[in-house]
Each structure stands twice: as C-alpha cells, then as structure tokens.
Amino acid sequence: MTASLFQSKTNVEQYADLWRDYWQTRWHRTPDWRETQRFNALLGASEARSEASPLVYDYPQGKRPFLGVLSMGEDGAPSQDAGVLEFPDAGHLLTIAPTRTGKGVSQIIPNLLFYAGSAFVIDIKGENYDITGEHRAQMFPGAKVIKFSPFEEQTDRYNPLDFVRTADDGGPTPDTFEDCRLLAEMLLPKTGKSKDEYWDLEARNILTSILMYVVCRNGYASDARTMRSVVDVLYVGDDEEDMTGIEREFVTMQVYAESINYRPLHALATAFLGHHEKVASSILSTCRAGMQIWLSDRLLSATDRSDFRFSDLKKSMCRPIEEDPAPTTIYVIIPPEYLNEYRSVLRMMTGLAAVELTRVGDWVEEPGWRRKPPCSVLFLLDEFPALGEMTPIANGLAYLAGYGVQLWPFAQSIGQLKSIYGEAWQNFPANAGATSFFGVNDPDTAAYVERLLGETSETLQHYYARGYYNAGSITDQTGQSSNTGSSSGSNSSNQYSSGFSTNRSDNNSSGTSSSRSRVTNLEHEADRINHRYTKWKIATAADVRALPEELQFVFIRNRRPILSTKLPHYQFELLEGLYSTWKRG
C-alpha cells in the first residue's frame, strides 16, 4: 500500500478487504488477560461497524476526530472487521495520559494529518507545526495555515483589542463592557488563593477600565488601538507631586466617560479613585505584576495588528464552491521555558478564539455561502491544565458543540484537573462524548478508569469433584451443600470452558460467584457437578496501570468500553511523505 492508495477514495473502497486485513494483522494488540469474558465485555470491531452511527471505518474519513485502531474480535482475537476508530458525534473529547506517552504522535499529529476541517492548536514546543504545517497548507486549494509565535521573527500577528466590539469610530456598544471584561479575565489569571480573591478582582477592574478607555478613544483603524497603548496607561510614570500618574489617567477616564455618557467606564474609574491610597497601590501592584510580560517588545510587536481573525476558522470553510472552501489552521506556539510566565497569552488566544466562534459570522447572509461549516472546528488543547482556570472553556463545554466547536483538552491526570477546577473537574469527562486513557501511572486515575470499565456480565461456569458420601446427602443445593451425614473427598482441577482454573486467585482480576451442586451417585463414590456464576471486573486499577503502551481505553457516550490500539503517525506507512521532520530536534 502507498500514499497514493490512501489519497484515492476509489482505490481505498475497491481494496476494502486489504484495508481490514492490514488493520487486524499490523495493528492488533491485546493485554495478557486469560479471562476471555473480559474481552467480550468490550465493544468489538464488528459491533462498532454495524451501529446506526458507526465508529469503525476502513480508512480515515477526515470528517471526524480520529482516535486509533479497533481490531478486537471475540475472546480478544483479531477481527475481520478491524478498522480505524473515529468519533462520529458533535460532542467534545478528552484525553488523560502522562507526559511522553504518545499524546502528540498518536492523537494530535494524526488528526492534523487526517482532519479536513479547521483546527486551533496549542503547540507548546512548535512540534506540531513543524511536522504538519506544510501538509495542512496543501490539503486543499485555499487552505490556510497561521502561526502565532511571538518568540520568533516569522510570526503571524493578532491584536487582541480587535476582539472587542465597538462602533466604527471606537464608541462603545452594548457588547463593549462584556468583551473588555472577558479579555481582562484572560490576561489576568486567578492566583487560586482565596486570600488574593479580592485583589484579583480589583486588578481585573483596573485592566477592564483601561481596555475600555483605549478601544473607545480609538477606532478600528487607529494605530493606537493596541496593547502597547494599554501598557502605556498601566505603567504611566509619576511626574506631579499632588497626583500619581495612574490617578491622573483615571481622572482623564472619568472626564472622557462623562463626555460620551458611558456609565461602565465612569463607574470603574470612580471606584478606583475612591480607594484609600494604600489599597489603590496594592491593587495597582497586583495588576502590574500580572501584566508584566506585556513589557516585552516582541510580544507587543506580535500584537500590534491582526493578520487573521478567529472567525476565519469557520469562514474559510463556508466559502462558495467556486471560491475553494478549505480549512484554516491556527498554531499558537510558546516555548516551554516561557510557558509559566506567558500562559496568559495562551489563555487569551484560546479563550478569545472559543468565544468569537459563537458569534454570528458576517458572511451568513451572503449568497452562496454556508451558514456553518460542514465539520466542526477542532480545538487541540495540549497541556490544557497549564493554561490555569479557563472559564470560557469550562463553561463552553455545555454549549460550544452547538456552535460547531469541538474541544479536545489533553491532561496528564485527573489530579491536574482537580487541582484547578475542584469538584467541577467532573464536568470535563461528563461533557465529553469520547474520553481516552493511556499510560496511566497514578492511583487516582487508575481507580477512576476501573470504575468506568465496570464488570463483565454474569457467566455460568462448571467444575467437578469426586468423593465418598453417606446416603443422607441432600441433592440440588444452591449456595452451599448441607449434609445429614459426613463426607470426604477431593476436588479435581476446576477447569472452565474458557481454559482457566477456578481454584486459584489471580491479581489481575476479581470476581463474585454463587454455586449450585448436584450429587449424581448416592452410593459410596459420587461425582459432584458444581455450577458457579461469576462476573469479573473488566480491568482492575492494577490492570489499567499495566496496560501495554500501545493500547488505550476509550469511552464513547452510549457505547460499551473500547480497548483500542494507538496509531503513531511515524509507524503508519500510508502517511509517509505527508509530514515533515520536527526541526527543533
């Protein structure tokens, strides 16, 4: 098979049997479980193909998120219906896997190579852009790739103040205050300490005031409508004895707000000026500490104008056929050594992108344009917990799918989500239509996966015993045998029909059972047939942690659990030539 086979739909359909044979022979993997009932409790490839909304296909379709390979057949054997596992619904996804277990090579990169829709990518190291950027730009005529990488000279630029809706001349609209408030929340993350809650809130009030002031005084076309102007106001110097520089700026805001009759700006400016000097100084210090990275000239240069809008993620897919509708891909790159200091930039880009895609596009009434794209915009949020608490994303889990946005956060453990979102962490798996776990090595996550997997259905097992019994034995007992006389004897090896023994324990499984026995010969020597009803945990926490590195557990809403093989892009022969080398080594 070659890449040309993969790229020709006619050929891949013609060679369906070849595809299925490839998946079952090249990619079938199973853990070393002796109890076949455990395999049979999982969703098999044949059943996954036959559902009303299939999960398994002969080859990647490109219209829905790709998860891996499903080759499981009866008793864990390879299935003749093996194929690629894709998520067919519009819901969100979630992956929990520790660092260096293959999240990038097995899920992020394959989706960037397969997925024909637009994508927004948090790319901490720039690896995903280096490997997939060229391919994404050449997928279709009209496809566009955007790289926002403020630490590189070659970067596309984005002005966050373009997110704020104002009149053409800069005057406020009913949306201006809420947009500035959201932008301030993205720029100033919470410290997470309850004692700092007041200062965090007041610091965001200061920043909201300055943002409103800058955008309202300057129209969309003004060179002064930038984060550089925001920094100039926030870090203004003191040059008068009777009034500090920041006080002077806020008095000017007050006067300006009165002149345009804009109550939100006037109220916030007045509130700040009403604080006691020491309180005002502490609030200002908190705000400046959170905004310190914006003193970086390269960050200000990368945000002094917009080369793109987040709405392009939808708009490019909605163009008329004659204008080549095609995906747009946005990579946001911050080097890992600067991640802690610059996480607010990632927060800002991610939060603003998600919110802007909920707005009605300016193209929807244009003749020949689609109202919404044919497939969702996929948000690949690697190292999602590093962004801190993301209110637009956490809240958006409940409604963003309805706007054609699929969120796919990646975290190292459920403990990471708990530490940021508290009990609300459960909203992430609860609102995810598909969740995958692999490489699990912490007890909490392993125990959580064990509970999700549940148990096998109850199965009937048989074993035999031979012994000497008095004639007073009572037959057909359920639960335990009751005898009026005495008995002696020994059990034979307790063989199950599936080929394993019942008279031994195994730390890779657990089960519960009830038994029924019948004495078939009431003379001195008798055969006893015991019937035992047993159900097993599909996988214990120990099994979850011992899962081979090639495998993952996948949970898809309203389906049985799935044991799937991961598909690293560099091991998939049909992708050769479609991806580049990671240039950073």
Automatic annotation (TrEMBL):
Region entry Disordered, spans:
476-523
> Does the record bear Metal-binding in its keywords?
no
Topology with respect to the bilayer:
Multi-pass membrane protein
Q: Does the keyword Transmembrane helix apply?
A: yes
Residues in coiled coil: none
**Which superkingdom is the protein from?**
Bacteria
Q: What's a GO cellular component annotated to this UniProt protein?
A: plasma membrane
Keywords, A to Z?
Cell membrane, Membrane, Transmembrane, Transmembrane helix
Q: Where this protein primarily resides, as one coarse class?
A: membrane
Subcellular localization, as worded in the UniProt entry: Cell membrane
Q: Which SUPFAM superfamilies match?
A: P-loop containing nucleoside triphosphate hydrolases (SSF52540)
Q: Where is the composition biased (Low complexity)?
A: 477-520
Q: Which InterPro entries match?
A: P-loop_NTPase, T4SS-coupling_protein, TraG/VirD4
Read off the PANTHER family from this record: CONJUGATIVE TRANSFER: DNA TRANSPORT (PTHR37937)
The text of the family note is:
Belongs to the VirD4/TraG family.
Designated name of the protein: Type IV secretory system conjugative DNA transfer VirD4/TraG family protein
Q: Which organism is it from?
A: Maricaulis maris
Q: What is the lineage of its organism?
A: Bacteria, Pseudomonadati, Pseudomonadota, Alphaproteobacteria, Maricaulales
